[in-house]
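Input set for joint prediction.
Command: fold jointly, output C-alpha cells.
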Amino acid sequence: MALSVEFKPVFDCVGWHVSLSLQGRQLGCERDGRWLFEGLDIDVHCGDIWHVAGPNGSGKTTLLKVLAGQFNEFCGALHWQGKPLGQSREHLAANMLYLGHSPGVSAGLTPLENLAWYEALHDECSDATQREAALAVMGLEGFEDVPVGHLSAGQQRRVALARLSLTPRALWILDEPFTAIDQAGVEALEAQLLAHARAGGAVVMTTHHVLAIDHLLRHVALG
Amino acid sequence: MPPSETTQRVAVLAEPTSRRLGVAFGATLLRDLNRVRRRRGEVLNPLVFYALAVSLFPIGISPEAELLAVMAPGLLWVTALLATLLSLDGLFRSDFDDGSLEQMMLSPQPLAALSIAKVAAHWLVTGLPLALMAPLLGIMLALPFHSMGVLMASLALGSASLSLIGGIGAALTVGLPRGGVLLSLLVLPLYIPVLIFGTGAVQAAIQGDAVLPHLAMLGALLAAALIFAPWAIAASLRISING
Amino acid sequence: MWGLIHKLGSPKWFYYRSAALQPWCWGVATVLLLVGSVWGLVFAPADYQQGNSFRIIYVHVPAAFLAQSVFVAMAVSGLVFMVWKIKLADMAAAAMAPLGAAMTFVALFSGAVWGVPTWGTWWIWDARLTSMLILLFLYLGVIALRGAFSRRDSGARAASVLAMVGVINIPIIKYSVDWWYTLHQPASFTLTSRPAMPMEMWLPLLIMVVGFYGFFIALTLTRTRSEILRREANTRWVKALLEEVN
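C-alpha cells >
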C-alpha cells in the first residue's frame, strides 16, 4: 500500500457514519501506595492514533487495560460514546480489539485454530478462507497449519495481529504491537494503522519503536 | 479520503448483540483437548505417576495381600488425589504466560463459564483416565473384585470436584513464579471431604455396606463445587491477570 | 450510610478513634483472663473422672472457639475488602491471620497435652483435633498466599478469596471429618462433650472465653494500628505524627 505523508494527524471523519469517542478525565491508578499515573486526560476520536509513551514501569500497560475497560481499580472518569463506562462497557467491548503485551496465541495450536478460537469466543462467524486471508495479510502463507510453538516470536506476534484484519472493530488498543516484528512488517503495520484511522477507526498503542508515522500520532507521556 | 483506496473495512460501531455461550464454551473445551492431543506426554505423566506411586506402597509397607487390601481404598484415593494435584499447575499456566487468559477476560462471555470449560477439559484428560486406570492398580493391591465398579465411580465423581476445587488454587497461584508447592498447601486441606467420602464409598463396597450414601455425598460435594468454584476461579484469575 | 462506611474505612480516622479504645480493650481482656485462670485453675472443683487434667479446657476451649471465629472474621473482612474496596478491612484481615493460626496451634497443643493423661498418647485422630489440624493448614495457606505475591494489593485480594473459599469449606470439612470419625471408631469421651458441667466449672470457662475474645479484639486493634502506620508511612498525616513523637 502506497503511503503518503500528507495526511493530517486527525483524519477528517465528516461524512462517515462513525463518531467514536473514548474520553478519559483525571485518570489515575495507584498500586501499593504508589501512583503509576495521575490526573491524566485523554480523548480518543475517530481518526486518532494515540501513542502512549513512558519508561518501563510507568503504567502504560495499565492505562491501556483501563481504556479497554478490563481494569477497574482506577480513579477518574472514563466515558465511551458520551456514556460512563458503567453503562457502556458492553458496547465498548463489542467495538474494541485489545491485543496485549503477550501475543495471546497458544503454542499448542495452529494459527488457524487460534484465530478460530477467538472467533468462537466472540461468536463471530467467518470461514477458514477469511482466516487464511487475514493470515496472508500478515505474511503467514504456508504457516496456517504449523503449531504456533514452532514459529518465531515475530511470527507469533503476526498471528495475533491477523485479528486486526479478521475482526472489524473501530477501536484498536495495542500493547507493544511492534515487538519482534521485522522492518518490512513494521512498515506494513504502520500502513495498516494509518488505513484504519483513515477509515474512521482509532488506535491507542504503546511502542518503544521510533515510527516513520510518528509525526501523525498523538502523544501522551507517562512517568 | 474515500475508503476504496484502503484495504481496510470502514469502521462502523456495532451494537452489542447476544453471543451464544455454548459456542464459546464448546470451542474452549475443544481447544484444550486439541492441545492435549498434540502433547500426549502431559496426559500420560499423571497416569504414570499414579501407577508408580501406588507401586511404592507394597514396597514400602509390606507385600502381604491382606494388609494391602485393607489399605487399598485409601492408597488408591490418596495417590489419585496427588496425581491430580500434580497436573493442576498446568491448568492455567500456559494460557497465562502466552496472554490467552487476558483475551478470555475480554470475551463477552463470563470468565466463570469459560474457566469451567477449561476445568472440564482438565477432568477429561486427568480425572477420568485416573478413574479408568484405578481398577488395574486395585488388582495389584488385592482389592476385592466386587468393589472395582464403586472405585471407578467414586474416583470419576470425586475427581471432578478435585479439578474444580484445584482450579481455584491453580488460578490463585498462576501468576506466581513458583506456585506449585504453594498450590498443594492451598488445595490439599480443601480436598479432605472428597477424600473421606471417596474412600468411604470403596470401603463400604468392600464390606458390603450401602454405597449409595457415600456416592450421594460425593455428588453433593460436586454440586456445591459446581456452584461456588466457577466464581472463585474467575475472581482469582482476575487477580492473577491484573497483578 | 455510604458516608459512614467510608469514614469507618478511612485508616486515619480509625487510627485516631481506636487510640482511646485500645487501652480499655487490653484492660478488660487482662482482668478477665486473670480472673478466669485463677478461678478455673485454682478454685474450680476437680473433675470426678479426669481429676485435675480437665482444667486444660480453660485454655483449650477458648482457643478452639477463637480459632474458628477468627477465620470467619477474616473471611468477612476479606468480603468487605473485595466488595467495598475498604483497605482497612484488609489490614485487619492481615493482622488477624497469624493470631488465628496461633490460636489453632494452642488448641491443638493443649488437646495433645490433655491426651497424655487421658488416652496415654500425645496424638489421637479425634474428630475435633483432626478438624483443628486441617484448620491450621487453611490458616497457613492464607498466610503463605498473602506473602507469596510481590504486589501487596494482589496478595490481599488473593488471600481474601482464599479465606472466603475456606470459610465455605470449614463446615463441610467439619461435617465430613465427624462422619469419618464415627465410621471408624465409636466416639469415646472427648475433651469437650461432657454432660451437665456444674456451675463452678463452666462459669470460669465462660469468663475465659470472653477474656480470649477480648484479647483477640485488643491484639487485632493494636496490630491493625501498626499496619496502618506501616502502609500509610508515606502520607502526610503519618509523617506529621512521627515528627510529633520524635
